[in-house]
């Protein structure tokens, strides 16, 4: 496990280390540079095709009619924009239901992971008491425990408590499983806040909770945002937990719903299947367009953790 | 001051909920599953103790070696692929595109955030041969290699899984290593260049040694997540044909929930945990030693 000094405070992304321009000859066309440019262009083009083509193909396929799937090769473009598949996916696959379920699971999980994680990080880093390092180590050690180990006993617990017919098992498991990383990073973020700020707030007569809400939380808000994104994607895209505790079609999340939809109709109804996949991908794309800068920044800040 | 931040009641209120959730969801079940490994049954039929039977079964089970081999091969191939591709992309971002790399970085990263099942289904249709020929096979046909049924044998399906997971994750490792490369001070590169180190030599003697910490954390991260592979396989091949692409993780899931044997399932879970812990600790220790040697 990483020692405490390993995780440096979050750092802002810095400017690229500038490399000197390629040596240029004075006269005539610089063929070497032209060649380099061409190579660069080629690599970029290949990267773009590799990344975008599967997604483009998926979108194009979602607009095709059943007839076009049978009579024309799969790589061909749709003849016209036909959104019937989306209507079918919505009705047959219950895409609306699975998106609602995913939201109902992800948002509360996210809230509790961040709230409990931030409070614990504060208690373990800013508060002064004997044994806090041991407790931190105990919680952080949980990062080493794979999910497989906890699934079966948890199933027994939820079954005995009669929770299996709800989304609660998912939320509880995500919160418990998300906490080790969250507490670890929150403690690191709080460590980066100058201690004088907290001391000054107590001199002004603020209590612990005032110091937490009015001084601590605002100081770590970037860290909270980064962690929130990380946890959002890991909960939203989880399959193992969702599949284990899923008991009925009405309670499926997006990942499980797509899997069921494919099992039921995947070999025959290509169009609606592609439309279903497309809907979930487009949803994420919209989110991603707005927050990708924050993701990159967060990765830069957390990249040194062991 | 110390009285304020040493307030026992406040500590309990702040730490209590998280500690309780962590204990209830992670710690207790982890210990509990050790007990399951010595029994058989499930939550509906009840459990009965069987001593070491599950561990004997583990040694005799013909699926375990197949599954273990698949898991380890997958983890090694995918880790090498992720690190090499990620490093190549990161070098491309830092030294060729430089400041103009933001858009490409963002685009190549996008598949990372997609639901795995969506990507898995997409790739299964792309590599399909029946009932309709997917674009991958059409391309092979066009190039004169001939279309092939990618999901008919385990070894062919293996490469589709690898290809898909590399597509899905290369942007992540690229950005991770990119940030590591950015941390190399510009002056170091500059003076190395003045000393005549360019191209491969600059990479081999300056860039790689300085990027070693982030390379090692990437390798640990990659091995650790690939040894637990589940989503991509479930969505793409569901372990088939037969059990030829069944990782331990999926086998454990099937044993527990399709065959309702929680005891043997827990034994498999313990095997997975042991492998992951051993690999992580081994890598961590050896990387520490290397770093102190300098």
TrEMBL record, chain A:
Main localization category: membrane
GO terms for cellular component: plasma membrane
Residue span(s) of domain ABC transmembrane type-1: 99-291
Region (Disordered) residue spans: 1-27
Residues passing through the membrane, by range: 38-59, 110-128, 135-159, 171-190, 211-236, 269-291
Gene Ontology biological process terms, A to Z: transmembrane transport
UniProt key word Membrane: yes
Leader sequence residues: none
Topology with respect to the bilayer: Multi-pass membrane protein
Keyword field: Cell membrane, Membrane, Transmembrane, Transmembrane helix, Transport
Record carries keyword Plastid: no
PANTHER family, per the entry: ABC TRANSPORTER PERMEASE PROTEIN MG189-RELATED (PTHR43744:SF12), ABC TRANSPORTER PERMEASE PROTEIN MG189-RELATED-RELATED (PTHR43744)
Protein name stated in the entry: Carbohydrate ABC transporter membrane protein 2, CUT1 family
Organism: Micromonospora haikouensis
Lineage of producing organism: Bacteria, Bacillati, Actinomycetota, Actinomycetes, Micromonosporales
Automatic annotation (TrEMBL), chain B:
Protein name: Carbohydrate ABC transporter membrane protein 1, CUT1 family
Pfam families per UniProt: BPD_transp_1 (PF00528)
Membrane topology: Multi-pass membrane protein
Domain ABC transmembrane type-1: 68-283
GO cellular component: plasma membrane
Record has Cell membrane as a keyword: yes
Transmembrane spans: 12-38, 74-96, 108-130, 157-181, 202-223, 262-284
Any single GO BP term: transmembrane transport
Keywords per UniProt: Cell membrane, Membrane, Transmembrane, Transmembrane helix, Transport
PROSITE patterns per UniProt: ABC_TM1
Subcellular location: Cell membrane
Family label: Belongs to the binding-protein-dependent transport system permease family.
SUPFAM superfamilies assigned to the protein according to its UniProt record, in alphabetical order: MetI-like
């Amino acid at each position: 496990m990483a020692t405490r000094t390993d995780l440096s405070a979050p750092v802002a992304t810095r400017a690229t280390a500038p490399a000197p321009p390629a040596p240029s000859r004075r006269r005539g066309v610089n063929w070497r540079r032209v060649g380099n440019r061409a190579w660069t262009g080629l690599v970029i083009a290949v990267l773009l095709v590799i990344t975008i083509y599967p997604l483009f193909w998926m979108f194009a396929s979602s607009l095709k009619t059943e007839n076009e799937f049978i009579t024309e090769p799969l790589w061909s473009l749709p003849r016209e924009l036909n959104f019937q598949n989306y209507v079918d996916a919505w009705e047959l696959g219950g895409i609306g239901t699975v998106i609602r379920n995913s939201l109902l699971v992800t948002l509360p999980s996210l809230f509790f992971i961040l709230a409990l994680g931030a409070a614990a990080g504060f208690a373990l880093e800013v508060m002064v008491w004997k044994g806090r390092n041991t407790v931190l180590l105990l919680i952080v050690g949980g990062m080493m425990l794979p999910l497989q180990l906890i699934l079966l006993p948890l199933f027994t617990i939820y079954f005995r408590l009669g929770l299996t017919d709800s989304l609660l098992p998912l939320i509880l498991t995500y919160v418990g499983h998300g906490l080790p990383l969250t507490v670890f990073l929150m403690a690191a973020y709080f460590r980066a806040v100058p201690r004088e700020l907290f001391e000054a707030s107590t001199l002004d007569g603020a209590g612990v909770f005032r110091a937490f809400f009015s001084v601590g939380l605002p100081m770590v808000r970037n860290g909270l945002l980064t962690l929130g994104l990380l946890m959002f994607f890991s909960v939203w895209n989880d399959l193992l937990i969702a599949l284990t505790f899923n008991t009925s079609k009405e309670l499926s999340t997006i990942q499980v719903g797509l899997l069921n939809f494919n099992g039921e109709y995947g070999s025959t109804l290509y169009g609606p299947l592609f439309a279903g996949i497309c809907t979930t991908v487009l949803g994420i794309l919209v989110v991603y367009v707005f927050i990708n800068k924050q993701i990159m920044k967060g990765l830069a800040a957390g990249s040194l953790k062991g | 001051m110390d009285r304020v931040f040493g307030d026992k009641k406040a500590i309990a209120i702040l730490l209590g909920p998280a500690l309780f959730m962590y204990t209830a969801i992670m710690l207790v079940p982890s210990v509990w599953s050790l007990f399951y490994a010595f029994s058989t049954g499930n939550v509906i039929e009840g459990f009965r103790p069987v001593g070491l039977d599950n561990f004997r079964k583990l040694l005799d089970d013909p699926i375990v070696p197949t599954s273990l081999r698949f898991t380890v091969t997958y983890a090694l191939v995918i880790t090498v692929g992720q690190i090499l591709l990620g490093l190549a992309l990161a070098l491309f971002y830092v030294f060729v595109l430089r400041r103009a790399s933001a858009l490409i970085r963002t685009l190549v990263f996008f598949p990372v955030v997609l639901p795995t099942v969506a990507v898995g289904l997409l790739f299964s249709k792309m590599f399909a041969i029946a009932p309709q020929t997917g674009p991958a096979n059409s391309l092979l046909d066009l190039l004169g290699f001939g279309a092939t049924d990618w999901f008919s044998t385990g070894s062919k399906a293996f490469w589709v899984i690898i290809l898909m997971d590399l597509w899905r994750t290369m942007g992540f490792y690229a950005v991770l290593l990119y940030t590591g490369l950015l941390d190399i001070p510009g002056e170091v590169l500059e003076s190395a260049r003045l000393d005549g180190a360019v191209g491969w030599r600059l990479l081999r003697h300056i860039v790689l040694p300085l990027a070693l910490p982030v390379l090692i954390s990437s390798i640990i991260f990659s091995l650790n997540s690939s040894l637990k592979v589940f989503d991509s396989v479930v969505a793409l091949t569901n372990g088939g044909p037969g059990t030829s692409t069944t990782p331990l993780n999926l086998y454990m899931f099937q044993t527990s929930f399709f065959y309702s044997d929680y005891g043997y399932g827990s034994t498999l879970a313990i095997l997975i945990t042991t492998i992951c812990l051993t690999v992580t600790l081994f890598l961590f220790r050896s990387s520490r030693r290397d770093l102190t040697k300098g």
